[in-house]
Amino acid sequence: MGVEIERKFLVLNNDWRTLGTPVNYAQGYLTANGIRTVRIRIAGEEGFITIKGGSNGISRLEFEYPIPVLDALEMLRLCAIPVIQKFRTKIDYKGKIWEIDEFEGDNKGLILAEIELTSEDESFDIPTWIGQEVTGDLRYFNSQLSVRPFRSW
Predict the structure, then answer these.
(1) Which of 36, 57, 144, 150 is least buried, going by the fewest C-beta atoms within 10 A?
(2) Helices in 77-128 by DSSP H: which ranges?
(3) R_g over Cα of the chain
(4) Which of 87, 108, 89, 93 is nearest to 152 (CA)?
């Protein structure tokens, strides 16, 4: 069984930009109701389907599987709400991978950093370009950004 343990933060400045290569992401939601989320994603040239359970603290069930990119393109057309567009940069910082998402479209101007952990109480070093933690703020969930985009706040 897959479990995602993730914390999410705002990004303070541009010091991270030279530390990795951005990859274009498009993702949409077949369902996102708080109990479960079914997401279709294209990351670069790869397609994925992801099923997530509701959050329990900073943990939730997560199952992600590769699918053919052409299937992912067709499935994105089935998504009920607008597709999220973003660039993701993965950065190794002191042994942990930080994923920096720079959003486009109606969420342009929003830059978030995520870190996946192996346990809820795992300690980690925080880079100087990391700001306020927003883990528990539902507005920053990608599924919520698709229905209530950043520019409407």
Answers:
(1) 57
(2) none
(3) 15
(4) 108
> Domain total for the chain?
1
Per-residue model confidence (pLDDT) at position 1: 58
The Cα–Cα gap between 16 and 90 comes to 10
- Mean pLDDT rounded to a whole number for the chain: 93
Closest C-alpha to 27, from 78, 100, 90, 99: 78
Residues marked active site are found at: 29
Under 8 Å CB-to-CB from 125, ≥6 apart: which residues?
93, 94, 96
How far is the C-alpha of 108 from the C-alpha of 101, rounded, in Å? 11
Helix (H/G/I), strand (E/B), else coil: 58: coil
User: Domain with 68 in it: what CATH number?
Assistant: 2.40.320.10
Helix/strand/coil for 55: coil
Q: 17 lies in which domain range?
A: 3-152
End-to-end CA distance of the chain: 36
131, 11 in Cβ contact below 8 A?
yes
pLDDT value of residue 80:
73
pTM: 0.91
Q: What is the pLDDT of residues 88-132, one digit of tens each?
A: 999 999 999 999 999 999 999 999 999 999 988 999 999 999 999
pLDDT value of position 69: 97
